[in-house]
Amino acid sequence: MASRRTLKIAQAVREVVAMSLLTDLKDPRVEHVTITGATVSGDGRQAKVFFTVFGNDPAKERKALAGLTSAAGFLQQKCARRIDARYTPKLQFVVDEGAKNLMKINEILQRERMANAQAAAPPDEIPPSEEEEEEEGEDTDEGEEDTSAEEDPSR
Question: Burial level of 99, CB count in 10 A (0-12/13-18/19+)?
């Protein structure tokens, strides 16, 4: 388990990088990038920053990774101002596969729900339209009497 100190450093790195992407970086390669998390090694010298890119395009991910890697020194300098530690972590950027996996799982679950719904409904049985239901209701009212009181033995 990570120490409290490394967790605080990781949180600070995530916040600084995310805010710097919004306010300071003007690189078009890092547009639509979301910082999802950060981890810091036990000695505090290395930090992995996890990110996702809006859309599911590997080319955009590669461009964003190149943009973040080129801005790593600038972002590390921003982190150094915020973190009060002996060493400033060297930033390494990694595409967050967790978000991709979550999207794949949701797609699979949705397909299974659709398959189960189709299997549960009998294919021959088509629900009657509103007009057919009204016609059936009219036919039963004309020729039949209410026999519910005669059948109920408790009355």
Answer: middle
